[in-house]
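Exercise: predict the fold of this chain.
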Amino acid sequence: MWKNILLLLLVNLYVGSSISWLSFTDSHIDLEYKENTANNCLFWSKIGTKCCRSSSIPKKPYNLSSKWGDVNCDIPPLLFENIMNWVKSNIIKKYNISFIVNTGDDCSHKDISQPFMNENVKTINYVSNIMIKYFGDIPYYYTYGNHDEYIVDQTPPIVTQSFIEQSSKYLKWVDDINLKKYGYYSVLEEENGIYYKIISFNSIYYDTDNNWIINSTYEDSRRINNQFEWLENELVDAVNNSNKVIFLNHIPIFSGESSNYNNQNLIELLYKYSSNIILNSNGHTHRNSFRLIKRGNEYVNYAYIPLSITTDNHFPSFRIYIYNNTYNILDYVNYICNLTKIIENNNVICEEEYIFSKEYDLSGINLENTIKLYEKISNNDTYFQKYYKHYNSGGVQEICNNEECKKNYLNEILNVI
């Protein structure tokens, strides 16, 4: 009986009062990517830059890069554009996509050259132009990532505002004065009778690697007009007007580089107004994972993180979220683009990898089901191995069948405060 009910709910996700959107993150496109260059190099590799450029100094053992990309390097524009072309032909009409979201880090890991070549502005605007080229008037919303900053991880006041003004000019769907000033914004949209508010949060101001980090309400108010107060006002407005909220954020709570000030404020606000938030979507980690926050004996927060577009020892990935307003169910379909096949066939084809609700035998995404998911992968090795496989799809993974290995992955998910 339960399986029949689940099937009925899944069918209803695709019909009736629903919205669907394309979600991707961490593209890390290298505009200077060069075919037939070393994918393992000597210079700068230790500080976050990668190879596959004509300036790369080979370090043995190495292979030569394909024109389509290499799992050891940032991706070439050719791969990114062809993935989006495939999405246009195979995804947009199939799911009736309403909008597209990108949770940050369009730019490459070439930290040294970025400031001198204005690479970050060029890359962010390149991605925006690709979105316009292939998806026309489908609204596109993104969030700034730490590698999207000028300079990486840093937010020097005058320089940052100038950078945001230059790199946000193609966001024609956003009419929020905070975007060009501070890089955060909200948009209210309506689709199929559903009023939803997209909130794009700029977590880079609270990055622990940021020399201009904001760590107090005073600094928040003085420098960026108090982003947390703005966020609460937006969430209150959503509650008062019965708007569903899709929260976009690059650095997840308690993830690497997220400060205590950021963690504490986000946990409280997202918990306080959780009744209207249908998704907390993040990036930054490059891995297909999720987060749970527990305070004492109570779970108070959760977030989902897609696998990245960039080939960080795995295949490019993106997902389609589907929200049904009638049943209040959120689900997603995960896609991967097999780079090995792409290189062999000289053609980009992506494949459906799994549907969240079917893969984990859950009715959809919410706090209750996220807790159940954590319990399933904690106590059942079949579910854990599914999670482990999807965590880094297409990448080289060692067997993880002992308690110590599993514990490391489970500890990443659960944060107790």
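Check your answer against the key: The longest helix spans residues 119-135.
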